[in-house]
Amino acid sequence: MDYAIDVRDMTVAYREKPVLWDIDLQVPTGVLLAIVGPNGAGKTTLIKSILGLVKSAAGSVLIHGRPYSEQRSNVAYVPQRGSVDWDFPTNVLDVVTMGLYGKLGWFKRPGKTERVEALRALAQVGMEEFADRQISQLSGGQQQRVFLARALVQDARVYFMDEPFQGVDATTERAIVDLLQSLRERGRTVVVVHHDLQTVPEYFDRVMLLNVRKIASGPVRDVFNEENLRATYGGRVAFVSALASKDDS
Amino acid sequence: MEWFTDIYLDYTLRTVALGSALLGITAGSLGGFALLRRQSLLGDAISHAALPGIAIAFLLTGSKAPLVLILGAALAGWLGAALIASVTLRTRIKYDSALGIMLSVFFGFGLVLLTYIQKMPDANQAGLDSYLFGQAAALVQRDVMVILGIGSAIMVMMVLFWKEFKLISFDADFGATLGFPIHGLDRFLTGLFVIAIVIGLQTVGVVLMSAMIIAPAAAARQWTDRLGRMIVLAAIFGAVSGVGGAITSGRVANLPTGPTIVLIVSAIVVISLLFAPNRGLVFRRVREWKAGKNLRVDAVLVDLYTLASQHSSKDYPHSQRVLDVMSTISGPAKRTLHLLETLGLARQIDAQNWSLTGKGVERAQSVIDSQYGGKLSQ
User: Fold this and answer.
1) Is the same domain home to B269 and B180?
2) Do the interacting molecules here have an ipTM over 0.85?
3) For the whole prediction, is pTM greater than 0.80?
4) In chain A, which residues have their Cβ closer than 8 Å to the Cβ of B163?
5) Residues A4-49: pLDDT tens digits?
6) Which end of chain A is more exposed for a tag (fewer CB within 10 A), N or C?
7) Tally of domains in chain B
8) Do B70 and B211 have their domain in common?
9) Do B171 and A106 touch (CB under 8 A)?
């Protein structure tokens, strides 16, 4: 079977301490996958190692059957909102246009075409009237939507999003959910690092439970159960079992 | 206009002013990127690290030609920057500590070498120590040509790689996923940075050079929220300080050029921090004061409204003392009540009692609608 994402034996260590241990992950095309796990489970590291941003001790990544290095233009990345300085002197449109820098290549400056594409991506996240706004004046949810627009403008086949729902308002949460669904309808594959277990069954088709090792991955209804959650979250599962039993009924 | 004839007629002054201006433009514009990448102190480390390079270049060649010494300075500065990056990456020492260590180790080594050179029985060595604090007055036309050539090359690179430098300054990880060689670009930008610093050492000296990098950029950042404008403004501030420093020290006896340039650029920073619109301290204070006043007015207004709504009419009067007790954020209510009166929102019934006017009731209702979701908590 041709997977959208095929990760084998991904292992990452920081100073001899394993952060990710021998992760295999196969994601079929056109699904929404949530990666869940406790703090320090390696969720962000997994995404970053797939994208080559973190050095891995071992592991290979195929995107639609070819090595990631050949598929960069088909892969879009939405980093955590807090990873950049939002006081940087630039505006919303400019940040979104950065998504097109890869296609532009060296030395070429973005022009009218790029502007139109960036505005279209902003419209998809309901931010078109913010195009000329300074990024320092955005709320957390608006910052997140700008980051999503920057990934959308890449028109990739595979999306990796790191905690897009972290600390956003209800409007933004709704906008992101709609966006995820429209991406799925267009046959795109989306991997989302997620922290809110409550919404996993509602928002996602598939889930990967991660805690340094892969505990389970598959369709939400098959693997998102009390046993796996307990294995992932260890002792801190009072809330988990309540959630799982509610979900079973 | 006397300074103008000076600069027009006096060869030395013209040379010094031109050299300092070019230097200010180069250092100021590159400094913009350093500031945004939170590498302001890297300039300080590089310039200090350059000192042993100057000494070694002299020891090896016996030459004091600026190009030879600049080359030595550049190699040492580059080595310092590379070591800082490597130490941060490979050990548990944090970036700021690595900066401090390299800065003092290289500078200390440079001072040792400089002392050794000065003790040498060779008349040729005189003047190397001018690299410590710079000696702009010694600039000759050939030096200015070197600064012009190197500075222009740096400018061309900045224009060519504008988009890439912006990308690695804002979000390097994202840039890497787009396929840009982030580490290569980082090294390239640091390399330009090293070159910009070492061409300034002769004029400003290793100790003060970092001010030429940081100060114009820090000042420029206060005035604009656009990267392009910020870099251009930083270049202008750099140029103005360079020319200003040259002219001032040319007209006042015993005033060294390098430190004067730094003093002028520092003055520009202070003025910018205080008076720039939006980000300036004065502007912010005024805005906060206005916001605070509005907040107090609204709070007392809502308090009056709350009290009155427990009675039959919305303009039922209440004592100022009750309002004093109610207002938790606004302090004593008396001043705010008089402010309400001037705004026509409340009126004083007698010595103690106040009530809302019709306009006051309206405003209170709209405040409650917008800020309390239409509901009052008691």
Assistant:
1) yes
2) yes
3) yes
4) 101, 104, 107-110
5) 999 999 999 887 788 889 999 999 999 999 999 888 888 999 999 9
6) C
7) 2
8) yes
9) no
